[in-house]
Amino acid sequence: MPDTKAPIAKRMAAATVAVALVVLAIKYYAYVLTGSVALFSDALESIVNVVAGLVALWAVTVSYKPADSDHHFGHTKAEYFSAVVEGVLIVVAALLILNEAWGAYWNPRGFEAPLEGLLLNGAATVINAVWATLLIRLGRTHRSPALSADGRHIRADVVTSVGVIAGLAVATATGWTVLDPILAALVALNILYEGTRVVTSSLSGLMDQAIDAESDAKVREAISLNADGAIEVHDLKTRLAGRAMFIEFHLVVPGEMTVAKSHLICDRIEDALQELFAGATVLIHVEPEDEAKQTGVPVL
């Protein structure tokens, strides 16, 4: 059955590239007008946004491919690779900005047309803020690491852009041109921090990270409320693979219970879990009562 969310995610990933190109053009023109190294650093990060958007588009496209003979569990982990690549690109951009800021610190430059440059950069920042909010929301809805990473990266760009605009406004008013490279360095440090966060969270996903505590509590509650007729549930394990979620556990039933009746309990639990988490893969291992451990999820 085709995933109806696939076209939406792909369109968003493609649109992100287009938005990043528009923002890059605006920010670079702001830099050309002013000659500000801080605005140059902001524009340089937008180049990273374009490249990261292209990688995310590839990853989302691959992740929605159906399972095949070589990938029985699908291709959803492709999105984690996108997020890792994006994190590495962010780190590279930060190092380039630090290098530019170092040179500008020792050779301060004056600003040209500062008002026009700041207004242009402000317009680009508003576009980024709206788009970042949308990406993060959709990334959460579709459980897409690629869209979420893109959104968090652009949100970090918004924060640094606001700081740059405010700082340059002060530098223009006071004539303290040394603030320009200092602001560029602060931008670099901020996006360096964001880059390490993106890489760290993606590597956790590649290592089959379990679902978050809130989702785990919902899983346990759903199992407990729908396992009537069973004795206990133990060895509950979960993992994430991009937007895909895998849930497995052992279900202990009375030894005299028929296969058909135990199968009905399994179906009831699976339906409840898949209603909570669309597309979740649930694997239940049924055991007789002498396998009970008196641990795990209580049956209500």
UniProtKB/TrEMBL annotation:
Keywords: Cell membrane, Membrane, Transmembrane, Transmembrane helix, Transport
Subcellular location: Cell membrane
Gene Ontology MF terms in the entry: cadmium ion transmembrane transporter activity; ferrous iron transmembrane transporter activity; zinc efflux antiporter activity
Domain Cation efflux protein cytoplasmic residue range list: 214-289
Annotated ranges, domain Cation efflux protein transmembrane: 16-207
Transmembrane feature ranges: 12-31, 37-60, 80-98, 118-138, 158-179
InterPro entries: Cation_efflux, Cation_efflux_CTD, Cation_efflux_CTD_sf, Cation_efflux_TM, Cation_efflux_TMD_sf, CDF_Transporter
Family of the protein in this entry: Belongs to the cation diffusion facilitator (CDF) transporter (TC 2.A.4) family.
NCBIfam families to which the protein is assigned, alphabetical: CDF
UniProt protein name: Protein p34
